[in-house]
């Protein structure tokens, strides 16, 4: 590794750095909700249905690409911290993966696109293919900035990505554009990496940093992380689909709709910001891999405390908020809302243990934990009890199984010498 590639090992992120990331996370979350609100109010039910399906499809595919961000963070941080750096460049690996993934989307589209995109079918396929290829570079840059603790540039990248979509949506409404504009807006945010590379010296330095393993190992690690992220996307973004698929014909549709909405609302306060903090967590755990229990304690305690407090609020105020904001059809008891909030808390804790597992190079265990959680959640959704009880059990039970798998991996890493800790 050249002198230009070397960065000093960093202390844990300062309050100012975390504050910038927190603000960027809030901006991103608020912008996303505003885009959806503008689309719903402007396009109407039919147009919004077309947009929402494409938004979800893009989110599902790019959700798996978060594995690129996670592994890039780990490998860059490990190299910066003094592990053996290589001549391999993670940006080449991530760009190649993104290009191949985009090509796969395009090549396979005749098999599935007619079932997913009822309108604007081929435009949606083209945008999805180009969007996932661009997102691969975005994910790489976000991971490289996290691994090199360039939190200011990372916060700018996160904010610009979201604001591009919001500004585009406002312009579309002002000029009277149709649903086509909103489809394009969905993917344009990921080009924020271009703007940052043009304007930020930190980004230009970070994008070419090496990792701690060669290209072949890095590719395998990245694909494994993407497999785990795919399971996470199913469990997080796809859970409402699983609820509908397992509800059965005898289920009350109003209750199912209320439960699906409640799951979405109770997850957002924890999972939306935690997803943006993945780079921060992985960097923390790579730096603290020799004292992993200590490094885990603060984020796990914080997530648990927020979850317990949120569950109490959901029990007391949730039923009133549901009916007051969304209408009388969305009536659920406080106990159900509290249970759903606790399920979201356990899922957030699984995200934390997953970040720790990938930080210590336990990629297969990381993926196994997420897939075991997904399979367990689906199985629990099939038990013969009411939809409220099944969903609450599935939300909490599946992630508990996943955390147990991660705990085995982390326990193994604490009982082997450091030199062996990178063996999976």
> Stretches where pLDDT falls below 50 for ≥5 residues?
1-12, 416-424
Counted up, domains total 2
Taking the alpha carbons of the first and last residues, their distance comes to: 25 Å
Note the overall shape: globular
Largest sheet: none
In N-to-C order, the SSE pattern is HHHHHHHHHHHHHHH
The chain-level structural class is: mainly alpha
Strand content: under 5%
Radius of gyration: 21 Å
The number of strands is 0
Q: If you average the pLDDT, what whole number results?
A: 85
What is the helix content? over 70%
Q: What would your notes on this structure say?
A:
The protein is built from 15 helices and no strands. It is mainly alpha-helical and 424 residues long. The N terminus and C terminus are likely disordered.
